[in-house]
Write a structure and sequence with these properties.
Layout: H1 3-16, E1 19-23, E2 26-34, E3 40-48, E4 51-55, H2 59-66, H3 74-86, E5 90-92, E6 95-100, H4 105-124, H5 130-144, E7 150-156, E8 162-169, E9 178-183, H6 188-201, E10 210-215, H7 224-232, E11 235-239, H8 247-251
Parallel strand pairs: 9-10, 10-11
Antiparallel strand pairs: 1-2, 2-3, 3-4, 4-6, 5-6, 7-8, 8-9
C-alpha cells in the first residue's frame, strides 16, 4: 500500500467517524479524536455573514479548571497563549475560537482540534510537573508580599551531600535567615526528604536559622503525622491555605 492510499484511508475514516447535529443555531461536530477522558472531542460551527466561526465552547479550559489545573498565573497564561498562537487560535470568553472563510474551513477545523489536544497535553499531562506550577505560585506570592529571597539555593550538608532549598530569605534586623522547602505533595516520603535535607544542613547554617516547609493543601488535606514530624525536627509547617499568617515574619 502506498502513501496516497494511506492518506485516502485516513480521510475516509475521518469522514465516516465524524457526526454533526444542529443545536440552537450552531452545528455540533463530534470528531473521532479522543480527549483525556476517552470522550469524543466536540466542536461547534456557525456562519456569520461570509465567515464561519469555530469554537470548543469553552469545554477544554473548563474541564482543566474543574480538574484542579488553574490557568491563573502569568507563566501559565503565557504558555496557553503561545500554544494557541501556534495554531492560529484565540480565546473568546474562555473558549478556543477561530474565524475562517469557506475555502480555509478544513484547515481551521483541523487546527482547532489540534489546539484542543495540545492544550490538554500541555496542562493536564503537565500535572506531573504541577510541582513547578506550585513553586511558581509560591514565588509570585512572595513577590506580591515584598518578601526578599534567593531561589533554588544549594547547601552542602555535614555528610558531604548537597541539598537544594527552594527559597532563602536573608536575615534582617528583626528576623534570622529563613530557609524554605516547597512540598507539593505533603505525604510522608516528601516530608522525610525535607527533614533529612534540613537535619544534614542545619549545623552548616547560622544557629538561629529557621526552616519552613511550604505545604500544598490546595487539593488535599495535610496528614497530621506530616505536620508533627516536621515540627519534631524544628521545621515550621506553612500550609498554603494559611500563608497570609506567615507573611509578616517572612517579609520582616
Amino acid at each position: 500500500m502506498n502513501t496516497e492510499n494511506l492518506v485516502d484511508q485516513y480521510f475516509s475514516w475521518l469522514k465516516s467517524k465524524t457526526a454533526w447535529r444542529e443545536i440552537n443555531g450552531w452545528t455540533e461536530i463530534t470528531t473521532p479524536y479522543l480527549d483525556r477522558h476517552n470522550d469524543y472531542i466536540q466542536i461547534y460551527l456557525r456562519q456569520n455573514g461570509d465567515e464561519w466561526e469555530l469554537t470548543d465552547d469553552g469545554e477544554t479550559l473548563t474541564d482543566l479548571i474543574q480538574s484542579g489545573c488553574e490557568l491563573d498565573t502569568p507563566r501559565r497564561k503565557a504558555l496557553l497563549q503561545t500554544t494557541l498562537n501556534g495554531f492560529g487560535m484565540h480565546l473568546a470568553n474562555g473558549a478556543i475560537t477561530v474565524k475562517t472563510k469557506q475555502d480555509s474551513f478544513a484547515l481551521r477545523k483541523h487546527n482547532l482540534i489540534q489546539a484542543i489536544l495540545a492544550v490538554n497535553d500541555l496542562f493536564y499531562l503537565a500535572r506531573a510537573s504541577v510541582e513547578s506550577f506550585f513553586f511558581e505560585d509560591v514565588a509570585l506570592w512572595m513577590d506580591d508580599s515584598d518578601i526578599r529571597y534567593t531561589q533554588r539555593v544549594k547547601f552542602s550538608g555535614r555528610t558531604g551531600y548537597d541539598h537544594l532549598f527552594d527559597f532563602v530569605v536573608p536575615k534582617s534586623k528583626k528576623e534570622p535567615e529563613r530557609i524554605l522547602r516547597v512540598v507539593n505533595n505533603p505525604a510522608k516520603d516528601q516530608a522525610n526528604a525535607a527533614i533529612l535535607s534540613w537535619v544534614d544542613t542545619k549545623e552548616a547554617r547560622p544557629s538561629n536559622s529557621v526552616a519552613y516547609a511550604v505545604l500544598n493543601d490546595k487539593e488535599r488535606i495535610i496528614p497530621d503525622g506530616v505536620v508533627e514530624a516536621l515540627k519534631n525536627y524544628d521545621i515550621t509547617p506553612l500550609p498554603w491555605s494559611q500563608r497570609d499568617e506567615f507573611r509578616e515574619r517572612l517579609a520582616a
